[in-house]
Amino acid sequence: MKESLEQLIVENANLIYKIANMFRNSNCDMDDLKQVGKMGFIEAYQHFDSSHGVKFTTYAYPYIYGAISKYVRENKGLKISRELTKLYYKIEKASLLLTQRFFREPTTLELANELNLPEDIIIEALLSKNTIHSIDEPVGKKDKELTLHEVIQDPVIIDIDDHMMLEEALQYLTEEEYALVENRYIKELTQSEVASLLHTSQVQVSRKEQKVMKKLRSYMMS
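The structure assignment produced for this chain is given below.
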């Protein structure tokens, strides 16, 4: 192909929009769908071989559709998982409250009345979420580990108590961002010590740390 990638994206913007529009009822933001579609388009561009005699748009279509479809599935599953986790925490708190009140474990009906929810919803949540994450359970990626307790020491996100969301949020950090969190909250280095390791200033480390914590909180509260 003689056309550049940028030129092809512009020329095929309608194709990307058309495929993204097929998922308009998925409750996903259309701009996000189009962006994901572009990523699929780029992947197609990187793998396309004109010697096979296939029209590029024909070749790119399944890449675009597949990327958007995968995004919608994962987004839906993540939303359900988040809502389930939030509900489970509410049930746990209500259970503790009612146990203190009744001097025994509450029934599902009592929990339902306390939370003003149908009993079958309570039962479903309890069956689907058998164990609650420990605040000291390690999360992270690759061979690095980070506990929720270590992260929520920071006042910026001290109100975040959802281990699952933290684990998901950490996956969205770059290697540099994760290294910063690791040095500050696992190795417990000072900002000045981290600055020396990264050959930068303490001020820069402080700014980057604030941005990372804001990024974590933004993702976990979305």
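Interim note for the steering committee: The radius of gyration is 23 Å. The chain has three domains: 5-76, 78-128, 138-221.
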